[in-house]
Amino acid sequence: MILFIYTVLLAFAFAFLVGFNLPNLVLGYLIALAIVAVLPQVPSPRSLRLKEVTTGPQLVRLVGNLIYFVLDFVWDLTLSNLQLAWDIWTPTDHYRPVLLEVPVHDLTPFEVALIATRITLTPGTLSCTVSADRKFLTVHVMYPREGDMAKRLRRPIDILKR
């Protein structure tokens, strides 16, 4: 049943992106069937949870952590854009590119994907690869800050897991 829901959602997404009519909906459904067929494992909604919420105070804490996660991302996005714009507009290059290894051995695949996406969406950082043993996420950073950058890059996920 969940596979059917995924294919229908993908078909509608395709139809809305290309142009909503019956031929595009059918084509989207066929493409969605192919996508679902080649996926090694379709994630269940239960596997996407960061943690189990059972009581009201836990729900309030989770919502607060999600709001903090989003605000932290907007803050990092703003600072990174300003830093990149400053580097472009000034005659001196301020970047010092480095490769960092962020420990992800205790994170679920969803959490690794979430942190990798967040890192990649922030200007000046790019998640490169996850090590074969899934212990480290390699990140390219153009403007490293003082202190433990790996801990700073991992902080948003740690906030959500509190």
Description:
This protein has 162 residues and is mainly alpha-helical. The protein has two domains: 2-42; 48-161, no CATH class. Helices cover 58% and strands 11% of the residues. The chain has helices at 2-18, 22-38, 56-89, 109-121, 149-161; strands at 98-103, 125-130, 136-141. A three-stranded antiparallel beta sheet has the order 1-3-2, with helices on one face. Strand 2 and strand 3 form a beta hairpin. Helix 1 packs across helix 2 and helix 4 crosses helix 5 (149-161). The radius of gyration is 20 Å and the shape is globular. 13% of the residues are buried. The model has no long low-confidence stretch (mean pLDDT 83).
Number of domains: 2
The overall strand count is 3
Q: Calculate Rg over CA atoms.
A: 20 Å
- For the largest sheet, list the strands in their spatial order: 1-3-2
- Per DSSP, the total helix count is 5
Helix content: 55-70%
Q: What's the SSE blueprint?
A:
Elements: H1 2-18, H2 22-38, H3 56-89, E1 98-103, H4 109-121, E2 125-130, E3 136-141, H5 149-161
Helix pairs in contact: 1-2, 3-5, 4-5
